[in-house]
Write a structure and sequence with these properties.
Elements (H helix, E strand, L loop, with lengths): L5 E5 L1 H10 L6 H10 L4 E5 L9 H10 L4 E5 L3 H10 L3 E4 L15 H17 L3 E6 L3 H9 L4 E5 L1 H4 L5 H15 L2 E5 L7 H5 L4 E6 L1 H10 L1 H16 L1
Parallel strand pairs: 1-2, 1-8, 2-3, 3-4, 4-5, 5-6, 6-7, 7-8
Helix pairs in contact: 6-8, 10-11
This protein binds pyridoxine-5'-phosphate.
The site of pyridoxine-5'-phosphate (PXP) has 19 residues, from β8 and α10.
């Protein structure tokens, strides 16, 4: 199997801490630089409709100044497609968004919203942006993602991280199906040092996007050490 698996570090919660005091520290851009220096393969940011953490000026600066791939998570709205086509991140991950949720709670309903998603994907592709859809490990949703020409799916690992019985098997089956459908497979949500290994070991998974745990762990050991350890675990899982 391809040994390489990328780590995208989600820095949303650096902005959460900054925003708690309304100032400029800690600066997500500076932390993103530190994450790349420590071995992160890319940076993930979620520009939410309510701008509760990452703000437009963060997204603009991060997309403009990084050579490393930037993965912009966003809702499937006209406003966000307009922002993405202007900022031109390497990739966009379309996620469902509900105002009251604490974090992204479930995957996209690609089957139910393919009519609105397909033209958005086409527009993003025309701007040379690789489009990923964040979905639950459900074969029908995967088939719908391939049908509307998403290049990538990010499998939602939240239920697995919450120890839902049978979820690892569902993720493994969904990951295997991506090869058949010609989709690149990413995964993320709720991943930690303790639960990352079985997901990183799935041969089809090419990228993990991890945020909250790494930022929390950074309080104890520093962000570089947390990233180095996560990458070590991911590499070991591929052996
Ligand atoms: N992937 C997607 C699509 C997400 O929405 C999130 C949360 O913002 C993550 C990955 C990272 O999840 P966590 O912060 O739990 O590591």
């Amino acid at each position: 199997m391809d040994q390489h698996i990328r780590l995208g570090v989600n820095i949303d919660h650096v902005a959460t801490i900054r925003n708690a005091r309304g100032g400029t520290h800690p600066d997500p851009f500076t932390v993103a630089e530190a994450a790349i220096a420590a071995g992160a393969d890319g940076i993930t940011i979620h520009l939410r409709e309510d701008r509760r953490h990452i703000r437009d000026e963060d997204a603009e600066k991060i997309c403009a100044r990084f050579a490393a791939p930037i993965n912009l998570e966003m809702a499937a709205t006209e406003e966000m497609v307009e922002i993405a086509t202007r900022l031109k991140p390497h990739g966009v991950c379309i996620v469902p968004e509900r105002r009251a949720e604490v974090t992204t709670e479930g995957g996209l309903d690609v089957i139910g919203s393919h009519n609105s998603l397909a033209p958005m994907i086409a527009r993003l592709n025309r701007a040379n942006i690789v489009v990923s859809l964040f979905i639950d490990p459900d074969p029908e949703q995967l088939r719908a993602a391939a049908y509307i020409k998403a290049a990538v799916v990010e499998l939602h690992t939240g239920a697995y991280a919450n120890n839902k019985p049978g979820e690892l098997a569902r993720l493994a089956a969904a990951a295997a199906l991506t090869t058949e459908l010609g989709l690149e497979c990413h995964a993320g949500h709720g991943l930690t040092f303790a639960n990352v290994t079985p997901i990183a070991a799935l041969p089809e998974v090419r990228e993990l996007n991890i945020g909250h745990y790494l930022i929390g762990e950074a309080l104890l050991t520093g962000l570089p050490a947390a990233i180095i350890e996560m990458k070590r675990l991911m590499r070991a899982a591929r052996m």
